[in-house]
Amino acid sequence: MSPAKRPGVLIVAVDGPAAAGKGTLAKNLASSLGLPHLDTGLLYRATARRMLDAGLSPEQDDGAAEAAALRPEDLARPDLRVPEIDRGASAVARQPGVRAALLERQRAFAQAAGGVLDGRDIGTVVFPDATVKLFVTASPRTRAERRLRQLHGDAAGADEALLEQTAQELAARDAQDAARAVSPLRKADDAVVLETDRLDADAVLARALEIVREREGALPSAT
User: Which residues are annotated as part of the binding site for ATP?
Assistant: First the structure.
């Protein structure tokens, strides 16, 4: 059953593939609008980490739903954005039990007072009636460069082989997420696409705020 959003509550769904810039946009958008922000991908990363720490495979059902009973300290770990967890998060995200366990947590976060949530199924499953739906994307090359900067702080020195490998890994993750039976990665029919290849974070934020104001009416200016 879809959640019932309270009238007047502003919920912004920011979806898209890995390293497209959706997380940065969601944080900046939440700050500009005075709304709480939830990185829903972090929930799946933390679940995968708990499974690996328990000696379980993220590919298996057994123990997955229990691992999704996250505590605040699980989300604050510094080892959630490494390649091993990239793969693990994609695996646990295919588990129906995990998605069911985390779905209500995501909805409860913003249902009453609003919020900005980023992930892969926010506008299609978590909040299909979100006030604004954005789908953030970029070319494989741009996303590979961003992922390397995220992991190593700088992509300028990366050779073509490493960039190509990273782009292939991201493409494989996209294919997994798009093909899963439960809550696949896809653009909501009423989402606005933001291609970020030639836009810096400030420009992406400015465009997103324009879209929010068009949908919601006059809102406070970004500071």
Answer: 16-24
pLDDT digits (tens, 9 = 90+) for 191-211: 999 999 999 999 999 999 999
Handedness of CA 199, 183, 75, 172 (dihedral sign): negative
Q: How far is CA 160 from CA 36, 105, 167, 187, in A?
A: 39, 41, 10, 30
First to last CA, the chain: 37
Specify the pairing of strand 192-195 against strand 132-137.
parallel
Residue 113's alpha-carbon distances to 11, 116, 187, 216, in angstroms, are: 9, 11, 25, 15
Q: What span, in angstroms and rounded, lies between the C-alpha atoms of 126 and 35? A: 17
Instruction: Name the residue type at position 55.
Output: G
Question: Which overall architecture, per CATH, does domain 11-213 show?
Answer: 3-Layer(aba) Sandwich (3.40)
A 10 A CB-CB count for 91 gives 21
- Name the one residue in this structure whose structure tokens are 């985390």: 102
Where do the structural domains in the chain lie, given as residue ranges? 11-213
Residues annotated in a binding site: 16-24
| Residue among 136, 112, 113 at smallest CA distance from 123 | 136
Q: What is the pLDDT of residues 20-67, one digit of tens each?
A: 999 999 999 999 999 999 999 999 999 999 999 999 999 888 888 899
Q: Tokens at residue 168, please? A: 């292939």
